[in-house]
């Protein structure tokens, strides 16, 4: 198998056929043996029905139906687990990432790259808030991470079998695939493009999911939040020590030792806030440790027409 295309699907019934047609044109133009792996993340529309219909007409169409919604990154992980191609493309089904770019990415891999990712120049259709928060997140992650994670790049990319085999060894529950690929190293290049609006439908990434995704990225590849909590603790100790010196000075030198409600309540609130922030940061890391210690399967397949 020359090429596997891994496609995460959640409520994309209006995009399935268009995506299939555009992908087919690309791979046929490249004259490759291929498979299209659609991972249905428990869509509530007719996405699965359309994928099954395609699979009856084309043996290259593979479907994996989850028992419940496990999330975008887990869906991509399942696709990588089942992929048999020497090269593997990761793409979403919303058509924001143009399938036609696969041709250029595939050819660039011929220059000796193990990974070629698509770097966004512009993002059409996204609100100002989404663009701004995404830009800030990528730059914050770049600053705090010990791994050089590419800026302004999503999961749309092509990887070789060597990278895929490395990813299979990473069994952590809170997946951040683009970070894992960057962590693996090897020779990585990119192609710039303008990202389109969604063809139809609404994004499955709410702001709540985006925040969770950002936390997964930061906590998976950086211990900076823990260091921040430690720094915050030391800072508070110094401030409290200075307040103690001032209190002793006021008591024995100035003889002004009337207890003030304002200073007391501010000190209590400040210390309480620092403690809660620190406990919350530690809790995020502990929850990830607990999830991995349980060793539950990352996903459960309800139905598929292929084998690993």
How does this model look, in words?
The chain is an alpha/beta fold. It has helices at 16-30, 47-57, 72-82, 101-109, 128-144, 161-168, 177-184, 207-221, 224-252, 261-294; strands spanning 3-9, 34-40, 61-66, 87-92, 115-123, 153-160, 188-195, 301-304. The protein contains 10 helices and 8 strands. Strands 7-5-6-4-1-2-3-8 form an 8-stranded mixed β-sheet, with helices on both faces. Helix 9 (224-252) packs antiparallel against helix 10 (261-294). The chain is elongated and about 90 Å long. The two termini are 14 Å apart. The mean pLDDT is 78.
Supply database-style keywords.
about 300 residues; alpha/beta; Spore Coat Polysaccharide Biosynthesis Protein SpsA, Chain A; 2 domains; 8-stranded mixed sheet; about 20% strand; elongated
In short:
The chain is of the alpha/beta class and 308 residues long. The chain is built from ten helices and eight strands. It has an eight-stranded mixed beta sheet with strand order 7-5-6-4-1-2-3-8, sandwiched between helices.
Characterize the largest beta sheet: strand count, sense, and whether it forms a barrel. 8 strands, mixed
CATH topology of the largest domain: Spore Coat Polysaccharide Biosynthesis Protein SpsA, Chain A
Q: Say which CATH homologous superfamily of the largest domain is assigned.
A: Spore Coat Polysaccharide Biosynthesis Protein SpsA, Chain A
Mean pLDDT figure: 78
User: What is the strand tally?
Assistant: 8
As residue ranges, the low-confidence spans are none
**C-alpha Rg (nearest Å):** 25 Å
Q: Strand share of the residues?
A: 15-25%
Give the topology string: H per helix, E per strand.
Answer: EHEHEHEHEHEHHEHHHE
